[in-house]
């Protein structure tokens, strides 16, 4: 009886204090500084919004799944690695969206510049601030992380301001190097650093077999993203592989997806059900690219391609785990 009355009094006290909490929340949200922080934070998020599903999540999974995450601080190390990756993505999107604001105004008017959340001039200033910020963040997390950060910045500048995105072959190479630089930086940010580590020891690429495979897969299949954007790319002067080789580029998807699936599955010996599902998915996606050729179809097929790529990343993480167990 005594415990029951105690519970009742506590509930009554909470109910009486609820209006006060609401008023405090109203005052808190009406604070102009807070509103400004929320507004600008959402603006930064919108710059990277399109890449959360296609880049941030899969590359985070790849990096954290293949890295020997620092065992003493696994959660904070993982969060730092994801923060580094998101910061690099922000830098890329600031460069990309300030280089072609007209294209975004037509195709993605919700983005910060065409929607008026930030002026083009301020976005350009923020672009250069992001370069310095990424370098400082990389140095803070781990000295060697600065190398993939600088490499990625150079690739972004070449891609957006020197026309390296206008040729399909170079574009695929740039995408492969860009994704690999992001994945490598995520791995390095998640690992424990040692004061005595040498650059040659850290960048011994014999340790990164799965990263090399990931790079080759991207170079040979990443034009999957270009089928749905043929008209927009034609207007902006790009010449992607689907535009250069309309039929052959689709044939390559039909061939390379099952081929890479077979090779990756042989690397890591997954359970039969997982390997079967992985191979079936590659065949479905490859056939869709070859058979269904409308822009709307290509959009859905590209979504399926990202699912296949996620399965590929899962298998590469499995390979890395098995390799560590073997060693």
UniProtKB/TrEMBL annotation:
It holds the Pfam family UbiA. The chain crosses the membrane at residues 124-141, 147-164, 176-196, 202-222, 243-260, 272-291, 303-321. The keyword Transmembrane helix applies. GO terms for cellular component: membrane. PANTHER family: CHLOROPHYLL SYNTHASE (PTHR42723), CHLOROPHYLL SYNTHASE, CHLOROPLASTIC (PTHR42723:SF1). It is found in: Membrane. Keywords: Membrane, Transmembrane, Transmembrane helix. Its main location: membrane. This is UbiA prenyltransferase. It comes from Candolleomyces eurysporus. One of its GO terms (molecular function) is transferase activity, transferring alkyl or aryl (other than methyl) groups. InterPro entries: Prenyltransferase_related, UbiA_prenyltransferase, UbiA_sf. It is a multi-pass membrane protein.
């Amino acid at each position: 009886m005594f415990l029951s009355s105690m519970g009742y009094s506590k509930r009554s006290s909470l109910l009486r204090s609820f209006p006060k909490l609401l008023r405090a929340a109203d005052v808190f949200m009406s604070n102009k500084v807070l509103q400004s922080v929320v507004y600008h934070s959402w603006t930064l998020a919108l710059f990277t919004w399109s890449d959360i599903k296609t880049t941030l999540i899969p590359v985070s999974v790849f990096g954290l799944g293949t890295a020997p995450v620092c065992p003493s601080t696994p959660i904070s190390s993982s969060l730092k690695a994801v923060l580094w990756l998101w910061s690099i993505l922000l830098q890329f999107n600031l460069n990309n969206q300030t280089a072609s604001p007209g294209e975004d105004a037509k195709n993605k008017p919700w983005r910060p510049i065409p929607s008026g959340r930030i002026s083009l001039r301020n976005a350009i200033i923020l672009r250069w601030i992001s370069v310095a910020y990424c370098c400082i963040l990389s140095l803070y997390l781990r000295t060697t992380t600065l190398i993939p950060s600088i490499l990625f910045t150079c690739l972004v500048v070449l891609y957006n301001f020197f026309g390296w995105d206008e040729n399909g072959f170079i574009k695929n190479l740039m995408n492969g190097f860009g994704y690999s630089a992001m994945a490598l930086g995520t791995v390095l940010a998640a690992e424990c650093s040692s004061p005595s580590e040498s650059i040659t020891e850290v960048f011994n690429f014999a340790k990164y077999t799965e990263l090399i495979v990931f790079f080759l897969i991207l170079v040979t299949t990443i034009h999957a993203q270009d089928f749905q954007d043929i008209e927009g790319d034609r207007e902006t002067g790009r010449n992607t592989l689907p535009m250069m080789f309309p039929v052959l580029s689709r044939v390559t998807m039909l061939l390379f997806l099952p081929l890479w699936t077979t090779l990756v599955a042989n690397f890591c010996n997954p359970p039969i059900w997982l390997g079967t599902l992985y191979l079936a998915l590659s065949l479905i996606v490859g056939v869709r690219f070859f058979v269904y050729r409308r822009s709307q179809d290509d959009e859905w097929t590209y979504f399926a391609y990202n699912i296949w790529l996620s399965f590929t990343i899962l298998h590469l993480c499995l390979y890395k785990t098995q390799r560590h167990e073997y060693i």
